[in-house]
Each structure stands twice: as C-alpha cells, then as structure tokens.
Structure to design on (995 residues):
C-alpha cells in the first residue's frame, strides 16, 4: 500500500451572499473523494481567505460566488496570493459567472471556473491533474 | 365496500394481463417524485378509500380551502404578475420599474443588493465589490424616495424582498409614501420579513434568532394597527427549497415557521383575527409538475386546519393561506439557457393550477447573471400566455378529483405532519435552528440530489444528457461604475447635511427600548432624524449582537 | 538557515506542519529540540457545546494581553474515503483581525481518541515557533477522548445544560480528565442544577487539584474573564507542583507511542495482513505471528517498503 499525502482544499465563500448550497455539497463530495476540505463558511474577505490558505497549507483554493461580485473577489484574492508569494496553489471557482468574465478571470490567473451543472468528478479530476505540488 | 372488492379484483386481473409489460419497464428502474415519493403506475379509487369531498376538499372558497381560497378564483381576478427589479442605485431602478409598469406588470417587486440585505451602507468597507449587483442599494430615505419618484405609492402594490433589516426598509417606504402624500393606512404591499428561514437556508441574518423574532412580531403588531392593507410578512419556502430542500421539507419548514410567528404574535397579546388575514406565503414552483400542484393544495389545507385547531379564529379569512410563487431558480441551467424558458413555463403552470395569488417567472439567463430586459419580457409573456391563451384559468382547481392528485396531496400532508412531530420533539423551530436540524436536513437533500445527478439517476437536459458544444452568447447586464459613484456621493452628501445630535438621540432611544417596546416607532423616528440603514442596524447590533451559525454540511 | 528562523515565516511553518503530518520523523525530532515550554490547553466536549466559540473568546482576550496563540482544531475523518471536512474555522473568524495567532485544522486520519497521530508533533511546531499558549480542540464526538490528557497541561471540559447528561459525561468518561469544567450556554437551560451536580461529583485529583466549575455564555462574553483567571490559577499550580516537568515527559512518551502505533497501524491496514490471516486459518499460532510482525516493524516493514 502506498500512502499518499492528503490533498487539502480550501472552500470559501467571499463576499456577502449566503447561498452556500453549492459550496457545502462540493465540500462534502470532495471529502468522499478522499480530500481534506477546509470549509470557512460565508462572508469571508480576501484577506481571511489567503490567510487561511497559508495557515492550512492547502493545495487548492476554491471560491464560490453567486452575488455577481466575482470579478472583484477573484482579483483581490489573486493580488494577495501574489503579495504573499503563493505560487504553488491552484485557484478555482464556481457560481454564477458569465462566459465573458470567465475568460477574463482565466487571463488574470485563475486556474478554472466551473459553471453550475459541472459534475463533482470533473472538479476532482481537474484538481488531481493540475496540482502544483508533488503528491 | 362491495365496490372496493371490485376495484381490487379488477386490479389483480389487470396485473395478470399486463404482467409482462409491468415487469419489463425498459426506461428506468425507479419512479419517484422529485422529493423521493415512490409512485404507482396509476392511481384509482383504491388509493382514495377514505376520501370525503367536503372533508378533504370542499368547494372553492370553503374550508379547508384545498381548491382555492376564493370561490371564483381566476375568473374574477387573475393572479398578480410580478417580476423582480432592482439593480445599481435608486435612480436606475426607478427607470426599470417604470419600464415594467408600461409592459403590463401589475405589482412591483424590489430586490436589494447584498449590503442592503445585511443592513450595511454602501460606504462600509465590507461591501466592496457588491454594490448594486444582485439588487438595488438603499441606504437612506432619499434613496427610497428616488426609487419611487413619479410612481404613486397610493395606487401601486410593492413587494420588497428584505428580511434582516425589513423593519427599517419598511419604515423608509412608509415615510417615502407619506412624503408623496399617501396615507399610511392606504399603503399596499409586502415585506418578506421572514427571518426564521434565513437561519435555515438563505443565511442573510444579522442578529441572533430570539431578538430577530421579536422584531418581526413588532412589525406584525405595528401593521395590524397602522397599515391594515400591508402584508408584514411573507413566510417563505422559496429559499428553503432553493437551498436544496425537497418539496415536503419546503412545505413543512415553512408552515412550522408560519405557526411560530402566529404563536408568538398571540403571546404578544394580539388577536389572531387582527393579523392572521395579513400573513402571506411565498413558495417555489419546481419542475415536478404534479408534486408542486399537490404541494400548493396541501399547503392551504394544512394551514387552515392548524390555524383553526390551535388558535380558533372567528374570521374565515384568518384561515386563508395566500401565496406568491416564483419558478425555481435552482432548476435553471447554465447550459442551453433557452431551455429554461420551457422549464419556467411548466413551473408557472403548476403554480397557476395550484392556485397562486401572484407569480414571478424567472428569466432564461438567470443562471448567468441579472436578467436582461429582453429575457424579463419573455418571462412576463409566459405568464400572459398562460393567463390569456391557454384556458387554464377558466376552471377552479381543474385537477381536483384526479386520483393521483388527491393521493399525492394526502401523501404530502402526511409527510409534513411527520416533520411537525420531529420539530415539536426538538422543542420548536428556534431550538431546531440552534441545533442545526433544519440546516442538516436541507444539506442532506442537496447532497443526495447531487449524487443522483452524478450517478445519472436524474436527468438534467443539457447538463448530464443531450449535451452539446455551444458557444454561449448571452448579453450580460453590467452595472456601470457611475451608478456606484453617484450613489456614494449622494450618501456622503446625506450624511453631511444633518444634525448628528438628533441622529444619536434617536438611535439611543431606540437602543434603550430595543427589548421592551415595539421598535417600529423608534425606527421611524431614527429615519426621520436622517439616520441611515447601516447606522440603525449597527445600533441594534450593539444591543443584540450578531449571529454566527452552527457548522453543518 | 536554522529552524527557528524558518519558523518565523508563517508560510514556511505551515509547510513544516504538512511534512510532519505526512510522517517526516526527522523533522519531528529536530523540532522537538526547539520547544520552549508553551502552555497547552485542551478543550473537549460534545458537538454543539461551543468549543470553537470558547477558544475564540479566550484567544481574543489573551491576544489583547500580548500572548501569541496557536490553535489546533481536530475533526473526524471519513472512515470510508479517508477524507474530511474541517470546519472549526467558521466560528473562529473573529481571530483573523489578530496577527499573533495561528490556526491549523487537522483530521484524525483514522485514529481514535480525539486527536490524530501527529497532533503532539504539530503542537511542538507551534511551541518551537514561539506561540506561548496553544489550544487543542478535540474532535468532540462524545466518544472516549482522553488522548489530549497526555499533551495538555490544562484540560477544559465543556458541558451545556440543554443536552442530556448521559451523552455528556458518562459516555465520554471525561469526569476524570478535566481541570476546569465549563457549563456553557447557561442562558439556555438549567445551568445552576448542572453546576451543583458537577460540584458534587468532581473530587480532588490525586495531584491535589480541585477541579473548578464555571458558568458561561461564551457568545456573549459572559464568564470569559473567570476562565482566564482559572487558567492562570491552574497554570501556577502546574508550575509549582512539578506537573510541568511531568507533562513534558508524558508528552514525549505519548509521541513515541503514536509514532510507533502509526507505523503498526499502517502495516495492519496493508495487504501484508492478508497473508497472516491465511496462516492463522491454516493453524499458525497467533502469538508467534504478532511477535513476527513486531520484529519486522523495526526491520523490513519499517524501511519504507510498505510505509
């Protein structure tokens, strides 16, 4: 048996919307996939999120935004990641993000945006394939 | 009895003849409603053994109101067509409201942005990036006045989707109306004001449950005395459902919340007949057509029975469950968004067949962003086609008496009562919230639904079946930055042109009386002194604290 | 660069914790050389008793007094997938306004007893990095959670007046391990009865400490100051009675045991066990097999072939 280290994923809801159905379903489903998921709850600032990512030494930051304020929140998290020299962590997101914004977010440095309706399998496969750190 | 034997005999005979086809259902293995209720191939009088027309249904407008609260339903008046509006600032929303009125909308419905929903002014640093995104930002009396500029509040009915700070937005509306010359007791409309479901599902709460509930009862009391035509609360299953609950959970939790409000109001010393007729409800219309219709019918019946049993009102109106419906946002798909027009049409039909008093149809692009005017127009036309072309509104409760419909209505009622027992055992709704019961139930259903999708046990057209490669070109409604700048300038100006001593005095008075007296007059005084939404909420937070929810997945 | 300098950088420290959690024993040993003797406080109690809220309130107070606070929150792992959802931070959000606090969420990774195999090692990292007060929030399943007793100088046991006694005390066996008992959420039930009951049951410990019972409403900051004082009182007791030294000893012994157990556990979870099971069915002596496995832990099994 080969013991691999656990993949750690931070699931956070930045901003003020309280729609946590997707975030919670994802957290629990990723647990089923064997990941360790750090769930922070709603109303997180970008500062809270990046700090948590550092202290928990996560492989992935996943943001769920349904308030329409995704451009602001992703930009801010990216800025803070850069400031803190975090370059080995995946940044992914989900929620209500129009196609045009999605393209811009990817250009800015977000690794992936998953639309509503994406299967959990697709998300966990993406994480496993794109990890920036060795397993 | 003889007849029952006959039905049984015939059923056995039928099973024998069609044995082969019954056993080899090629398409699917399981037949369940969206809530997971197991279904027979067909329904017959056998399933309605104890059916008693007057006991279970009654004629329209008669107890237990299963068929509808009005004797003639849509023959005398169609349901109210409502579409949400609100984004950016008050001035922009005012423009949109006028557009909707021009196109035949009969009631206004205001959505607020997240900062407003949480009682934060737009200059609060926590609100960065959220201005005007999901609704309009309203911070001051001036904002409220601008939003309804040239829209006579005396003649229109307005529904405001606001909960945590509902009492304050209501105060703003009352004063905006009065500044137009409209009398308080003539104002018509609804504030959602259903705080209990915020803790269960939508999570836009501010204070802990107990003082929040006290504030809601304040508004119910105030309304019964000063605004007799206003619905001070819209007890909402919509958000519970959207958070992942089943139809049964939606109904059970919503009615349990409703009964809690009534109980608390009666404890306050109010006469049930003075406020119960003004309580209104708000449900989701999801995609399982028959289950939704059954849900609406069961809702009316359970409510009438429980209010009668528990509170013995004298007025018949106190037994009415009046409700607004919105089609299910959660059923919309981001993929092939045009399909959402069809989904919405099916859901809207379920709402009308279920006897709704007003209806909001979602726009096809809402899985992407705020709807564009074109998309809103199609949504409104969907209602107009049902109302004026389809013939559906001609007959009251046209599905009443269908074996399946009556069985399903009974079944949902039974399941709801099971939940009532569970909630009673927990010690009531608030205890259930604090222990995370409702949150756990809802999260569990959401999780199960997702699993079913992953395992292809459920089909979502365009998502896990009939997928296509598509390049989506949906026009997106953008909120121009100028709106935020304009709003912030206005707020700054408002704050610098007032007497702070008056503001502080009014807020202190409110704080002093927060737990003991009805807060509405103090809130209104604070607004008159030019306190902002954020300041009033902050003052109350200082007294009551803020709520952090238990952690439930 | 020496390890203490590395530990000054939160990001680097965090990565060290990850390596230790994944079994880097050389690093564990190195860290152990640098511990400074932080005060370690275990917090235990059933779900819903308010552990995270209490830790947050106590930490805020101690941070204001100039302490540096480390927190380790333990949540259970799924026995099926090995994954976990770690949610202790939800209630600790208030602490994000302070710089001198470090929170780490971990899962039990299959271990019972309320902690993970390497919790003590992670505590050492925080200690070595100069966090002078370290809270350990145990799993809180209401099961037997006495592991924390081996590491913590002071143990706080939370009770709430709203839940049945059977769940809280008898099952958990926590009457023996607590130094400070908190009746939290005192505004939600018969708290005074609960306190009377606890005062009646709780006897003076062998080491001479009489457990304290305190009533709180943590969310409203009621009783927090009393706990801070009680913690200080117990800390003095720990230092004066030589308990401090004994605890370092027990912590090291506990670590050793966990490292060994973890290895053994991995072996026993591996396919090696299948062949032994077969041998047993064929009639080989159990005692003999156990001895063989233990011998091999130090030999071929321990050398990385399996682990």
């Amino acid at each position: 048996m080969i013991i691999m280290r656990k993949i750690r994923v931070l699931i956070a809801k930045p901003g003020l919307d309280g729609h946590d159905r997707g975030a919670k379903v994802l957290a629990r489903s990723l647990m089923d996939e064997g990941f360790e998921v750090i769930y922070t709850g709603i109303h997180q600032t970008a500062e809270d999120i990046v700090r948590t990512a550092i202290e928990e030494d996560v492989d992935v930051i996943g943001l769920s935004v349904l308030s329409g304020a995704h451009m602001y929140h992703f930009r801010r998290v990216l800025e803070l990641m850069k400031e803190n020299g975090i370059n080995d962590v995946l940044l992914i997101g989900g929620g209500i993000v129009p196609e045009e914004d999605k393209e811009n977010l990817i250009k800015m440095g977000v690794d992936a945006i998953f639309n509503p309706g994406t299967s959990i399998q697709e998300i966990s496969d993406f994480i496993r394939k794109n990890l920036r750190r060795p397993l | 009895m003889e007849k029952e034997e006959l039905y049984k005999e015939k059923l056995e005979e039928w099973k024998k003849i069609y044995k082969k086809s019954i056993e080899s259902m090629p398409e699917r293995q399981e037949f369940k409603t969206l809530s997971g209720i197991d279904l027979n191939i067909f329904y017959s009088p056998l399933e309605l053994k104890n059916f008693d027309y007057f006991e279970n249904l009654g004629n329209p407008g008669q107890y237990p109101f299963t068929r509808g609260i009005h004797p003639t339903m849509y023959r005398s008046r169609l349901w109210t067509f409502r579409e949400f509006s609100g984004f950016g600032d008050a001035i922009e929303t005012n423009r949109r409201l006028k557009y909707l009125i021009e196109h035949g909308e009969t009631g206004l419905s205001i959505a607020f942005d997240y900062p407003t929903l949480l009682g934060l002014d737009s200059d609060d640093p926590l609100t960065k990036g959220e201005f005007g995104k999901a609704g309009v930002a309203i911070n001051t009396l001036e904002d409220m006045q601008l939003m309804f500029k040239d829209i006579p509040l005396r003649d229109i009915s307005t529904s405001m989707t606001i909960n945590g700070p509902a009492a304050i937005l209501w105060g703003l509306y009352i004063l905006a109306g009065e500044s137009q010359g409209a009398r308080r007791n003539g104002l018509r409309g609804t504030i959602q004001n259903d705080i209990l479901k915020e803790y269960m599902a939508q999570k836009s709460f501010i204070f802990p449950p107990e003082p929040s509930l006290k504030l809601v009862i304040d508004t119910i009391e105030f309304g019964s005395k000063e605004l007799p035509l206003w619905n001070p609360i819209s007890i909402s299953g919509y958000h519970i459902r959207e958070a992942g609950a089943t139809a049964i959970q939606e109904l059970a939790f919503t009615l349990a919340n409703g009964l809690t409000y009534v109980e608390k109001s009666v404890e306050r010393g109010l006469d049930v007949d003075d406020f119960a007729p003004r309580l209104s409800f708000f449900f989701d219309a999801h995609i399982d057509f028959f289950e939704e219709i059954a849900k609406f019918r069961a809702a009316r019946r359970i409510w009438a029975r429980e209010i009668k049993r528990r509170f013995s009102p004298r007025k018949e109106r106190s037994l009415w469950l009046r409700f607004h419906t919105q089609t299910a946002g959660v059923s919309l798909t981001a993929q092939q968004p045009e399909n959402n027009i069809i989904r919405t049409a099916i859901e809207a039909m379920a709402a009308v067949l279920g006897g709704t008093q007003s209806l909001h149809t979602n726009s096809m692009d809402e899985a992407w962003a705020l709807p564009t005017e074109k998309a809103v127009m199609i949504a409104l036309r969907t209602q107009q086609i049902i109302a004026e072309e389809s013939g559906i509104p001609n007959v009251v409760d046209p599905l009443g008496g269908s074996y399946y419909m009556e069985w399903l209505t009974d079944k949902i009622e039974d399941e709801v009562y099971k939940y009532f027992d569970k909630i009673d055992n927990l010690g009531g709704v608030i205890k259930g919230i604090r222990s995370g019961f409702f949150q756990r139930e809802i999260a569990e259903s959401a999780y199960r639904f997702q699993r079913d999708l992953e395992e292809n046990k459920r089909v979502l057209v365009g998502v896990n079946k009939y997928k296509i490669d598509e390049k989506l070109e949906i026009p997106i409604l953008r909120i121009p930055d100028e709106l935020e700048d304009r709003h912030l300038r206005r707020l700054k100006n408002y704050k610098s042109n007032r007497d702070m001593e008056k503001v502080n005095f009014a807020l202190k008075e409110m704080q002093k009386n927060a737990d003991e007296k009805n807060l509405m007059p103090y809130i209104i005084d604070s607004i008159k002194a030019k306190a902002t939404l954020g300041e009033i909420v902050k003052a109350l937070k200082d007294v009551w604290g803020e709520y952090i929810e238990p952690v439930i997945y | 660069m020496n390890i203490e300098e590395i530990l000054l950088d939160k990001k680097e420290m965090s990565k060290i914790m990850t390596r230790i959690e994944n079994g880097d024993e050389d690093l564990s040993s190195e860290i152990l050389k640098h511990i400074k003797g932080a005060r370690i406080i275990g917090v235990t109690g059933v779900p819903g008793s308010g552990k995270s809220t209490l830790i947050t309130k106590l930490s805020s107070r101690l941070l204001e007094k100039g302490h540096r606070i480390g927190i380790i929150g333990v949540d259970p792992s799924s026995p099926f997938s090995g994954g976990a959802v770690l949610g202790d931070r939800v209630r600790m959000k208030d602490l994000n306004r302070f710089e001198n606090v470090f929170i780490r969420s971990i899962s039990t990774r299959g271990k019972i007893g309320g902690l993970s195999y390497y919790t003590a090692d992670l505590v050492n990292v925080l200690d070595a990095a100069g966090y002078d007060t370290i809270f350990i929030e145990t799993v809180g399943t209401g099961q037997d959670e006495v592991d924390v007793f081996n590491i913590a100088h002071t143990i706080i046991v939370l009770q709430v007046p709203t839940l049945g006694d059977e769940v809280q005390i008898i099952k958990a066996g926590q009457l023996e391990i607590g130094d400070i008992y908190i009746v939290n959420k005192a505004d939600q039930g018969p708290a005074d009865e609960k306190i009377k009951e606890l005062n009646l049951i709780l006897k003076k410990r062998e080491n001479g400490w009489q457990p304290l019972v305190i009533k709180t409403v943590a969310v409203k900051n009621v009783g927090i100051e009393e706990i801070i004082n009680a913690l200080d009182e117990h800390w003095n007791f720990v230092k004066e009675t030589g308990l401090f030294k004994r605890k370092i000893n027990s912590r090291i012994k506990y670590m050793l045991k966990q490292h060994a157990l973890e290895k053994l556990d991995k072996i026993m979870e591996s396919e090696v066990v299948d062949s032994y099971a077969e041998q047993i069915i064929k009639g080989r002596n159990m005692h003999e097999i156990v001895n063989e496995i233990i011998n091999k832990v130090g030999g071929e099994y321990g050398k990385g072939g399996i682990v």
Q: What stands out?
A: Chain C is about 45% helix and 15% strand. The first helix of chain C runs from residue 3 to 7. The beta strands of chain C are 39-44, 69-75, 84-86, 101-107, 133-137, 154-159, 180-183, 212-215.
